[in-house]
Each structure stands twice: as structure tokens, then as C-alpha cells.
Amino acid sequence: MPSIIPSAAAATRKIAGPQNVRLFSASAPMFGNWLEPSLDRKKKMMKGRPRVPTGGSTKGTTVVWGDYGLRMTDHHRRISAQHLKIAEDTIKARLRGEKYRLYKRVCCNVGVFVSGNEMRMGKGKGGFDHWAARVAVNQIVLELRGMIHEQVARDAFRLAGIKLPGQWEFVKKGEPPIVGITKLNGITLEELKRPRRKVSAETLQPIPELAQGSRSPLDLP
Hints:
By secondary structure, the protein is of the alpha+beta class. The chain is about 20% helix and about 20% strand. Strands 3-6-1-7 form a four-stranded antiparallel sheet, covered by helices on one side. It has a three-stranded antiparallel sheet with strand order 2-5-4. A two-stranded antiparallel ribbon has the order 8-9. Helix 2 runs antiparallel to helix 3. The longest helix has 14 residues. The radius of gyration is 28 Å and the shape is extended. Belongs to the universal ribosomal protein uL16 family.
């Protein structure tokens, strides 16, 4: 009959688990805020410019975590934290009662400093006014995932795009990425980087109207 008393080897055996980890803490966690980073507001910041994917980067142009996304389509700009907060509240009001999760792809880490009206030149950069985020062209700003119909998510992002400056479009997960303003729909990145095809001079033929000496409308003063 086996003994029910644990042996010394079994008593000294330890359960494998994470080391140097506090399993409980009474203090509130500090996760930060995407609308206001933990930076010194008194420190002056340069205005800067949003990134331009001249090297063929497709970063931030596709939906990663969610099922649907909101993408800017016109050109790069700085969007204030107040505009992004209003857009977030608009989506939450439209999806009230639904089971979903909203992901933010941008962070307002750029401080905007302004000076008062009718200030003479040479009086300094000015004081802190608000936080803003640099958003590049065709960049995903918000993503959504949950038990929501596509038309409901499309309507929520439509209302959010009205509150934000610029032009926006609704995208789904799996859509092709974008390089600059070119959508890689059937086109690979290697084909875009390939130099243009050289055309020999023998295959070129002059335009008949220009060959006769007539002036085109573009040449007129």
C-alpha cells in the first residue's frame, strides 16, 4: 500500500513560476495617456514634420490589431489631442452597449507652443498651448475589434472622420499596404524600386502636328 505521507524529495520540490515578479501591488499602475505624455511642458520643442516614406516604408498603413481601421488619405498634418479625444468620444457614443476594443495607433507627444496676438518679433517661442501628434499620409490612427457588424463600425468611423481635420477612409484588415500614395494592390515593393524602362531613340516618332511647324496651345503666350 503506497504511503500518503509526502517524501522529503516531494516536499522540497518547488513549483516553477516567474522569478522576481510581484503578484500583487496595492499601488495603481501608471500606464500613461496617449493624449498627454509624461513630458516636461516647459521644455521647448521644435515643430518638426511628419515622416515621409521616401525609402519605400509601409509602416502604419495597414490594420494590425483590430478588424477595422480609420486611415487618413489626403496629406500629413499635426492633429491636436483635443481633436483625437473628440473622435474617440464620438466612436464610444456610437458603439454604446456593444462589445468592442478601440486601439490607438498615434501618440500626442509633440508640444505646441504659441505666443499671444500682436506680439513683436524676438520675444521668444511662447508658452505651452496643447499636445499634438504628427500623422503621416495614409497612416492608421484608430483600430476597432469586437462583436460589431461592419456597417456599424463603418458608421462609427464615418462620424469620427467628420470630427477630425482632413479626409479619412474606412479600411479592413487584410487590405494592401500603401507606399506614399501608391497602394500595393498587385504591385510588389521590388517593382516600385525597379528603375524605369529605357526606351531607345530609334523607336520614338515625332508628333505630326509639331513636325509641320504648328504651335501647340501650350506654347502660346
